[in-house]
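**User:** Once you have settled down, spend some time on the protein underneath, comparing sequence with structure tokens, and judge whether sequence predicts the tokens.
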Amino acid sequence: MLSVIIPTEGVEQTAVATLSALVPGAAAGVVTEVLLIDRSSDSSVIERVADVAGCHFMKFEGSHAAALAAGAAQARAPWLMFLPAGAVLDPGWIDETMQFVQSVGAAGRPLAGVFRYARSPYAAVSLRDRLRSVARALIGPLGDQGLLIAREHYRQVGGYRPDVKRAETRLLRQLGRSSRTMLRSRIVMV
């Protein structure tokens, strides 16, 4: 039902944190495949993580947006979930995701879901974090909040364009408020 695409930068800890949050979804049959797309010069660490976790691995040389687009092209499930490495979802994400997919299917109207951003309670707050909070309040969700979207809807809006800077934010803006919704489940970056 769901392909999860996670771009990584060769850091094992962030990839493992995100994968561990997805295990209950795989056990419930919601997550059918996970693609780890690594852009680092030495991909051996992430390749080993993918092998141990039973994920698909892609070595990719190119922009972040191009890596996301390549992952979407390789994914096989009818729904796509894009998560940044280091993102940990609330435990209730599985039920909410299933309800969201069913309601979008029943409504017959394309709709994408974005997770609520929550800062880790253990992280120090930097000026950058404060500025990003203001940006979220003023302009809406940012690319680090993840995206849940039907493959067909993703294709209709043009997906992630490899030649565009901040392609994640651009895609969220292109979806607009009318074809995206804020999910109740939170996404916490570790």
Q: What stands out?
A: Residues 14 and 86 are 4 Å apart (CA to CA). The radius of gyration is 16 Å.
